[in-house]
Target: Neurotransmitter-gated ion-channel ligand-binding domain-containing protein
Amino acid sequence: MKILISLTTVMFVASVQSSSIHLSPKGQDGQSVSDNRSPGTRARERLMNTLLANYVKSVNPGPYDGSPLQINMSLSLINLDSVDTKERIIETHSLLWMTWTDERLSWNPSDYHEVNKLHMPTDSIWIPDIDLLNNDGDANKPVSDMIADVTSDGSVIYAPELHLKSLCETGQEAPEAARIARILGSSELVCKLLFGSWTYDTTEIKLVTPSSQMDMSTLIRLSADNFHVKSTSVEVDHKTFNCCPNDENKKKLPIQFATFTIVISNNPIYRRGYNTR
Ligand SMILES: *[C@@H]1O[C@H](CO)[C@@H](O)[C@H](O)[C@H]1NC(C)=O
Model:
């Protein structure tokens, strides 16, 4: 009986030893795979894990002093896709640039192999719910909105690509063009793209438009159906909405929106305007 027990013990120990012998080459293989990662990749992985460890993406960033979060906005026009003069609707393709600072996403590059910039998936960090407010139809969904660029000082750059359908008004031709417009029967449309957030009021976010014009440097096709971009302008407006029609005291705080105005004309005198191709 004693012999049998000790024999079982010997067999058990032997099997543990053999399985540990069997396991150790596997462990070494795992090690060699992780060794293939460059120090930069390892630093970026460690940084991504550290930044997101206690990050609550539904909470908006804001300066410690309680002032609103500044969001810089600009719009780069890529294409003027179509102009519907009857319905006064234009379709455009553009990039909406938004930059802000999220202090939770800052780090010291010397702690991370001098990594200064990280591409972060937009579904893992806070992104403002800024949308086209005067949209028409459902052509406003971002084409791509997957990545934001984050720099070590906590500044975030997010630029969704947008296909927009917007309503326009008939414009007033300038005096020198009006005579030609009358002869040719040409017309002008003023199209305003209003971007803002329905949820964050002016105490929480502050929209800033550093440039007074839209960016045309990314433009691929600036003319559609004989219409050309004549001019653009950019400004920030406020609007106060009544939340509860019967209670004047419960006025909602003002909402801000960045207004990007595109003036297009099919008067041939503007043909050379921005259309340098
Ligand atoms: C926003 O634009 C201003 C210039 O108008 C600039 O000083 C500031 O650094 C910008 N902020 C961010 C987060 O890019």
Q: What stands out?
A: Residues 1-31 have pLDDT under 50 and may be disordered. The chain has one domain: 60-110+121-275. The two ends are 97 Å apart (CA to CA).
